[in-house]
Design a protein that fits this description.
368 residues, alpha/beta, 8-stranded parallel sheet, 10 helices, 16 strands, binds beta-D-galactopyranose
């Protein structure tokens, strides 16, 4: 700590959008990206706050051009990246792209080591708004210095671009990356499995003090709607990423998702937790066997969100004293179920929560 933090206003709340990787891997092309952008609008995701359409690894041709500039794979992106970005912008959305800080991407495609200023300039010319910089093939290099070079390259390119740092949390980036980029991965890659979501969540429990406007911990992109996650598991994943003030980058196929998946991704009172203007990341109050209790303080100061996670296979009852979440004794509070969007009741002492197997209960608590 003790170092400066970015405050350039590019990511005042955690970035929201879609990224191709979790669902499509390298099987991406311009039709997929445009159809996804259109689906973002048709499904109400844009209106819910999703803005960035990001292509991950696999967009580049195997070689740079003779000037040394990046070239898009001509079969996947025949119209070129600039045209794609223009079309995304015309839909009222923003465009993001991927590169890698090392000699090759994780899929062995051309990467940016030694080309940082050239690539930042090219991205700026293309109209890129967001760049994810990965960390494969970086043997022996220091992430802090190399990502700082990227920040300088963005500055020199004279286009505001969100910098997404992706070194998987290896060098405790929460301690240094807030001065350099807008978000930094805190863990290895997420999988569409309950165990992966829980493992990542456990790694976030001590990181709340490092996040805030323009600098966010990134527990990785969403798997909502992917794999065999049950509806309750999808809801728990989404609610906890919102408690963590995580960037909400959908990672599913927006063109074919079910209404149930969409309803999770746009749940207004859950998205509002994530996007709370205070930017204070939630923290774990305690863990008791299969039950985790987390709290997040909202911008108004008097409002709190409690999220109770039941990792186990039986329904459990949990009691939370108001003083445990920082409410002064004998204050009357209203309790609201933020998934159901309905009032639960009033209390001055404690809240009793029944939480079913593999699910999360999310309650808003406010004075009155
Ligand atoms: C990983 C990264 C993933 C994805 C993948 C692409 O290093 O964590 O999110 O970008 O590379 O190859």
């Amino acid at each position: 700590m003790g170092i400066g933090r970015l405050s350039d206003g590019l990511a005042p709340t955690p970035p929201m959008g879609w990224n191709s990787w979790n669902r499509f891997g390298v099987k991406i092309d311009e039709n997929l990206v445009l159809e996804t952008a259109e689906a973002m609008i048709a499904t109400g995701m844009r209106d819910a706050g999703y803005r960035y359409v990001v292509i991950d690894d696999g967009w580049m041709a195997p070689n740079r051009d003779r000037n040394g500039d990046f070239v898009a794979d001509p079969e996947k992106f025949p119209s070129g990246i600039k045209t794609l970005a223009d079309r995304i912008h015309a839909l009222g959305l923003r465009f993001g792209i991927y590169t890698d800080a090392g000699t090759k991407t994780c899929q062995d495609l051309p990467a940016s080591l030694g080309y940082e200023f050239r690539d930042a300039r090219r991205f700026a010319e293309w109209g890129v708004d967001y760049v994810k910089v990965d960390w494969c093939h970086t043997n022996g290099m220091g992430p802090r210095a190399l990502y700082a070079k990227w920040a300088m390259a963005f500055h020199a390119a004279r286009r505001p671009m969100v910098l997404s740092i992706c070194e998987w949390g290896r060098s405790r980036p929460w301690e240094w990356a807030g001065a350099i980029g807008h978000l930094w991965r805190t863990s290895w890659d997420i999988q569409p499995e309950w165990s992966s979501i829980l493992t990542i969540l456990d790694r976030q429990a001590e990181l709340h003090s490092f996040a805030g406007p323009d600098h966010w911990n990134d527990p990785d992109m969403l798997e909502v709607g992917n794999g065999d996650l049950t509806p309750d598991q999808n809801r728990a994943h989404f609610a906890f990423w919102s408690m963590l003030a995580a960037p909400l980058m959908a990672g599913n196929d927006l063109r074919t998702m079910t209404d149930a998946t969409r309803d999770i991704l746009i749940a207004p009172e859950i998205v509002a937790i994530d996007q709370d203007a205070g930017g204070r990341q939630g923290r774990r109050l305690w863990r008791d066997g299969d039950i985790d209790t987390w709290v997040r303080d909202l911008a108004t100061g008097g409002e709190h969100v409690i999220a109770v996670l039941n990792r186990g296979s039986a329904t459990r009852e949990v009691r939370i004293a108001l003083e445990d979440i920082g409410v002064a004794p004998r204050t009357n509070v209203r309790v609201r179920d933020l998934w159901k969007r309905s009032a639960v009741g009033k209390t001055r002492r404690e809240i009793l929560i029944a939480t079913s197997a593999n699910s999360a209960t999310v309650l808003g608590v406010s004075a009155g």
